[in-house]
Amino acid sequence: MADNAKAKSGKRKILIPVLLVLTLAACSVAGYAVWRMMNKTDGHDKAAAAKVEPPAAPVFFALDTFTVNLVNPDNDPDRVLYVGFTLRLPDEATRVRMNDYLPEVRSRLLLLLSRQNAQGLAVEQGKQELVKQIVQVLAPPLVKGQPPQVVSDVLFTAFILR
Protein backbone atom coordinates (compact mmCIF):
# COMPACT_ATOMS: atom_id res chain seq x y z
CA MET A 1 0.00 0.00 0.00
CA ALA A 2 2.84 2.32 0.73
CA ASP A 3 4.27 1.69 -2.72
CA ASN A 4 0.89 2.48 -4.24
CA ALA A 5 0.64 5.76 -2.26
CA LYS A 6 4.19 6.75 -3.28
CA ALA A 7 3.35 6.07 -6.95
CA LYS A 8 0.24 8.26 -6.74
CA SER A 9 2.19 11.00 -4.97
CA GLY A 10 4.95 10.84 -7.61
CA LYS A 11 2.41 11.04 -10.43
CA ARG A 12 0.78 14.05 -8.75
CA LYS A 13 4.10 15.82 -8.43
CA ILE A 14 4.63 15.39 -12.17
CA LEU A 15 0.97 15.95 -13.15
CA ILE A 16 0.61 19.41 -11.54
CA PRO A 17 3.60 21.03 -13.39
CA VAL A 18 2.55 19.36 -16.68
CA LEU A 19 -1.02 20.71 -16.33
CA LEU A 20 0.39 24.13 -15.41
CA VAL A 21 2.60 24.15 -18.52
CA LEU A 22 -0.29 22.98 -20.73
CA THR A 23 -2.60 25.70 -19.30
CA LEU A 24 0.07 28.33 -19.84
CA ALA A 25 0.62 27.14 -23.43
CA ALA A 26 -3.14 27.14 -24.18
CA CYS A 27 -3.52 30.67 -22.81
CA SER A 28 -0.55 31.83 -24.86
CA VAL A 29 -1.97 30.36 -28.08
CA ALA A 30 -5.39 31.90 -27.36
CA GLY A 31 -3.84 35.29 -26.61
CA TYR A 32 -1.76 35.16 -29.80
CA ALA A 33 -4.84 34.22 -31.86
CA VAL A 34 -6.84 37.15 -30.41
CA TRP A 35 -3.93 39.54 -31.04
CA ARG A 36 -3.66 38.38 -34.68
CA MET A 37 -7.40 38.77 -35.24
CA MET A 38 -7.37 42.29 -33.78
CA ASN A 39 -4.37 43.33 -35.86
CA LYS A 40 -5.87 41.80 -38.98
CA THR A 41 -9.12 43.83 -38.67
CA ASP A 42 -7.23 47.01 -37.74
CA GLY A 43 -4.99 46.59 -40.76
CA HIS A 44 -8.02 45.95 -42.96
CA ASP A 45 -9.79 49.03 -41.62
CA LYS A 46 -6.68 51.15 -42.10
CA ALA A 47 -6.32 49.90 -45.67
CA ALA A 48 -10.00 50.57 -46.36
CA ALA A 49 -9.70 54.04 -44.84
CA ALA A 50 -6.63 54.72 -46.94
CA LYS A 51 -8.49 53.64 -50.10
CA VAL A 52 -11.44 55.97 -49.43
CA GLU A 53 -10.76 59.15 -51.32
CA PRO A 54 -12.09 62.47 -50.12
CA PRO A 55 -15.10 63.70 -52.05
CA ALA A 56 -14.40 65.77 -55.11
CA ALA A 57 -14.60 69.52 -54.76
CA PRO A 58 -18.10 70.76 -55.51
CA VAL A 59 -18.74 72.45 -58.83
CA PHE A 60 -20.82 75.61 -58.54
CA PHE A 61 -22.25 77.75 -61.32
CA ALA A 62 -23.30 81.21 -60.16
CA LEU A 63 -25.92 83.00 -62.22
CA ASP A 64 -26.63 86.72 -62.32
CA THR A 65 -29.72 87.81 -60.43
CA PHE A 66 -33.13 87.75 -62.09
CA THR A 67 -35.83 90.40 -61.73
CA VAL A 68 -39.28 89.39 -63.00
CA ASN A 69 -42.89 90.47 -62.62
CA LEU A 70 -44.97 87.82 -60.90
CA VAL A 71 -48.41 86.43 -61.63
CA ASN A 72 -50.95 87.42 -59.02
CA PRO A 73 -54.74 87.24 -58.83
CA ASP A 74 -55.31 91.02 -58.72
CA ASN A 75 -52.94 91.72 -61.67
CA ASP A 76 -50.88 94.12 -59.57
CA PRO A 77 -47.89 95.07 -61.75
CA ASP A 78 -45.83 95.92 -58.69
CA ARG A 79 -45.41 92.28 -57.64
CA VAL A 80 -41.74 91.69 -58.42
CA LEU A 81 -39.32 88.87 -57.64
CA TYR A 82 -35.62 89.61 -57.37
CA VAL A 83 -33.79 86.31 -57.04
CA GLY A 84 -30.24 85.11 -57.35
CA PHE A 85 -29.05 81.56 -57.10
CA THR A 86 -26.12 79.28 -57.64
CA LEU A 87 -26.40 75.82 -59.16
CA ARG A 88 -24.51 72.87 -57.73
CA LEU A 89 -23.42 70.62 -60.57
CA PRO A 90 -21.98 67.09 -60.60
CA ASP A 91 -18.93 67.82 -62.76
CA GLU A 92 -16.91 70.45 -64.58
CA ALA A 93 -18.17 69.31 -67.99
CA THR A 94 -21.74 70.26 -67.05
CA ARG A 95 -20.57 73.67 -65.83
CA VAL A 96 -18.71 74.32 -69.10
CA ARG A 97 -21.73 73.21 -71.15
CA MET A 98 -24.06 75.51 -69.19
CA ASN A 99 -21.64 78.39 -69.53
CA ASP A 100 -21.41 77.82 -73.30
CA TYR A 101 -25.20 77.90 -73.61
CA LEU A 102 -25.82 80.58 -70.96
CA PRO A 103 -28.44 82.51 -72.99
CA GLU A 104 -30.50 79.31 -73.33
CA VAL A 105 -30.17 78.61 -69.60
CA ARG A 106 -31.18 82.16 -68.63
CA SER A 107 -34.13 82.10 -71.05
CA ARG A 108 -35.49 78.88 -69.55
CA LEU A 109 -35.12 80.30 -66.07
CA LEU A 110 -36.74 83.65 -66.92
CA LEU A 111 -39.74 81.89 -68.43
CA LEU A 112 -40.07 79.71 -65.35
CA LEU A 113 -39.70 82.58 -62.89
CA SER A 114 -42.23 84.78 -64.70
CA ARG A 115 -44.89 82.05 -64.29
CA GLN A 116 -44.53 81.99 -60.50
CA ASN A 117 -47.28 83.05 -58.13
CA ALA A 118 -46.36 85.70 -55.54
CA GLN A 119 -48.43 84.07 -52.78
CA GLY A 120 -46.83 80.68 -53.35
CA LEU A 121 -43.28 82.03 -53.11
CA ALA A 122 -44.00 83.79 -49.83
CA VAL A 123 -43.83 80.49 -47.91
CA GLU A 124 -40.97 78.01 -47.47
CA GLN A 125 -42.81 75.24 -49.31
CA GLY A 126 -43.20 77.48 -52.36
CA LYS A 127 -39.45 78.14 -52.44
CA GLN A 128 -38.73 74.41 -52.21
CA GLU A 129 -41.16 73.80 -55.08
CA LEU A 130 -39.34 76.47 -57.10
CA VAL A 131 -36.06 74.61 -56.54
CA LYS A 132 -37.64 71.42 -57.93
CA GLN A 133 -39.01 73.30 -60.92
CA ILE A 134 -35.60 74.85 -61.67
CA VAL A 135 -34.00 71.40 -61.65
CA GLN A 136 -36.71 70.11 -63.99
CA VAL A 137 -36.55 73.03 -66.43
CA LEU A 138 -32.76 72.73 -66.76
CA ALA A 139 -32.77 68.92 -67.13
CA PRO A 140 -33.51 68.63 -70.87
CA PRO A 141 -30.49 68.86 -73.16
CA LEU A 142 -29.65 72.37 -74.28
CA VAL A 143 -29.02 71.21 -77.85
CA LYS A 144 -29.93 67.96 -79.61
CA GLY A 145 -27.28 65.30 -79.20
CA GLN A 146 -26.10 66.52 -75.80
CA PRO A 147 -26.69 64.61 -72.59
CA PRO A 148 -29.36 65.85 -70.17
CA GLN A 149 -28.28 68.47 -67.66
CA VAL A 150 -27.97 67.30 -64.08
CA VAL A 151 -28.37 69.91 -61.36
CA SER A 152 -27.60 68.53 -57.90
CA ASP A 153 -28.97 71.50 -55.96
CA VAL A 154 -30.14 75.09 -56.27
CA LEU A 155 -28.81 77.48 -53.64
CA PHE A 156 -30.49 80.87 -53.24
CA THR A 157 -28.08 83.78 -52.90
CA ALA A 158 -30.73 86.54 -53.02
CA PHE A 159 -34.49 86.41 -52.64
CA ILE A 160 -36.62 89.54 -52.47
CA LEU A 161 -40.35 89.38 -53.03
CA ARG A 162 -42.13 92.75 -53.39
Please tell me about this protein's structure.
Keywords: Cell inner membrane, Cell membrane, Cell projection, Chemotaxis, Cilium, Flagellar rotation, Flagellum, Membrane, Transmembrane, Transmembrane helix. Controls the rotational direction of flagella during chemotaxis. This is Flagellar protein FliL. One of its GO terms (cellular component) is plasma membrane. InterPro entries: FliL. The chain has 162 residues and is an alpha+beta fold. The chain folds into two domains: 1-52; 59-161, Tetrahydropterin Synthase, Chain A (2-Layer Sandwich). It is 56% helix and 17% strand. It has helices spanning 2-51, 92-100, 102-114, 118-121, 124-138, and strands spanning 59-62, 66-69, 80-89, 153-161.
